Each structure stands twice: as structure tokens, then as C-alpha cells.
From TrEMBL:
Keywords on record: Amino-acid biosynthesis, Cytoplasm, Diaminopimelate biosynthesis, Lyase, Lysine biosynthesis, Schiff base
Protein name per the record: 4-hydroxy-tetrahydrodipicolinate synthase
Taxonomic placement: Bacteria, Bacillati, Actinomycetota, Actinomycetes, Micromonosporales
Positions of pyruvate binding: 60, 215
Family per record: Belongs to the DapA family.
InterPro entries, per database record: Aldolase_TIM (IPR013785), DapA (IPR005263), DapA-like (IPR002220), Schiff_base-form_aldolases_AS (IPR020625)
Subunit text: Homotetramer; dimer of dimers.
Pfam families: DHDPS
Organism: Plantactinospora mayteni
Annotated pathway: Amino-acid biosynthesis; L-lysine biosynthesis via DAP pathway; (S)-tetrahydrodipicolinate from L-aspartate: step 3/4
Amino acid sequence: MHWTLLVCLSDAVIMRLTGVYVPLITPFDATGAVALGALEALAHQVLEAGAAGVVALGTTAEPASLNVRERQAVVDVVARVCRERSAPLIVGANAVEAVAALPGRAEVVAALSVVPPFLRPGEAGVLAHFAALAAASPVPLVVYHVPYRTGQHLSTAAIRRLAALPGVAGIKYSVGNIDSGTVELLADLPPDFAVLGGDDALISPLLALGAHGGILASAHVGTAAFVQLAEAWRSGGTVRARSLGHRLAVLSTALFAEPNPTVIKAVLHAQGRIPTPSVRLPLVPPRPEAVRAAVRLAQDDVWRKLLLQGLA
Ligand SMILES: O=C(O)C1=N[C@H](C(=O)O)C[C@H](O)C1
């Protein structure tokens, strides 16, 4: 991407990488095919409920279990919804060929690219990887840092070097805890760099520390409550934010009681929003008791009451 274009775009991009993004699940129908109509409806629902944007082909979408045609169909459907609603879309893409093939459409504001997993190339390797990826990408990158999955730790200094790379606009920060490195990063945010939380149960403290928003699979349910949480922390409504954050952490914990997105899909199915709760291998259906607990917590009317009464 051209450097001057990047500088002009950076403010606008950071503004758009703020708030709650929902990484959409991929619904399947009774034949096992991708239920594109249900996916389209889900995208409309979460945006209608106030989500800042959506992510296509995040971890939650089971992208490794989709074939090339299915992945393309998913991106096409979600992009159409985003175009209709003038909403930003982030697309999961990890390799040079995948980012280079991203559609040059206005609604695609960034690619979500995971730190290379398993190999553990070291911080220098990670930096070189993202420099190459950014050079090939028509859109800015959000680095997906999830060390408990990739096996690759990154120091705060390395994250700052990533943030300084042209074409890197943010990080999905999913380190599994809040530690001194988290505080160090958020206390002195790199310029033009968005920090989006990716550990759902930790989103409230991360927002309290100054994160720009979150990419939260939990926000498929209780979307408006997650949106209000982010707004409350941003506007200084700390009493409400703290209380709402505690309640949402309980919901997120229940939704992540089994490998994501098995429970979330079961809840969405119980709510009549997707045709089946099916997941593809290697994921298997969650335990019924985990689903029952999450369905109870996810009941829309419970959240509506809390939000209306301002009790949350
Ligand atoms: O798909 C995503 O992006 C997310 N994936 C995480 C995971 O599966 O662990 C969770 C987060 O909510 C968003």
C-alpha cells in the first residue's frame, strides 16, 4: 500500500477500528451446507443492535473447515450487508496470497491476520512476516495476537515495532490475561494503532485500561449490552460499566465453556436465529448442560430489562 495514502487513511481507519466488532459464526443448514441466508440475517441483526462492524472468517467462523468457494461466498454475503449498511468489515486472511486477494471494496477496512502459529519464528520473524503481508495487502492489517494458540509470545517492545510498520493499523489482543505488559502497552498507545480485545471475559478491564474496542464472539448475543459496555467505558460511566462488565463476563464464560463457537451456535439455534447448531470437525457438539446454562444467561429479555432499567 502506498505510504502517502496510508497516512491520509490512518485517522479514518483508527476511528473505524473502534467499538464492538462481531466475528460472525458460519451457520450450516440441515444438509451441512453453509446457510448463507441465516448468515446474512445475523450480520443485519448485530449491526442493527449497534455493533460497530463485523468480522468475516475470524476463528469463530471455522474458516479452516470451509472450502475456497464457501469462504468466498461468506465474504461476499457479509460484504453485501456491510455495503448496504455502510458498516466496516474486517476479513480474516493470514497468508500473502489471501491478503493480496482481498476485495478492494470500500467496506473492507482491514484484514485480521494471525501471528504465524506453531512454528514460533521469534519476534524478528513475526515482524518480517507482517512487513511482507502489509506490503502485499490492499487494506491495513490487524495483527491477531493469541499466544496461547500460536505459541508465539510478543514483548511490548515487539508489539510497538509491529505498530510502527506501514500498513499495520491495530492488534486483536488475546493474551489470555491482563498483566504488566498489557498495562504498559495501553498506558502509552502507539500512534494510529487500535487495540481491540479478543478475550471476551476480559473485555471490560481492557476497555477500562483504554482499549479501542473488542472483537467478541459473545456479542452475537446481548449485542446491545456489549455495545453499551464499550460506550460506558468511553464516556466515563464507570459505575455502570463496571457492573455491566461483571455481568457480561459471566455470560462470556458460559459461552466459552466449550471450544468456540460450539456453545454460541447452540444458543443462536435455541434462539431460532440459525437453522442448526452444527459445527464441522474437529469441533464436536457441546455438552447439553453447557448449552442450557448459556441459553439461560443469554435470554434476550433478561438483558433488555437490565439495559432499560439501567440496573446493569
Ligand atoms: O473469531 C474471532 O475473531 C474470535 N475468536 C476468539 C476465539 O475463538 O477464541 C474469540 C473472540 O471472541 C473472537
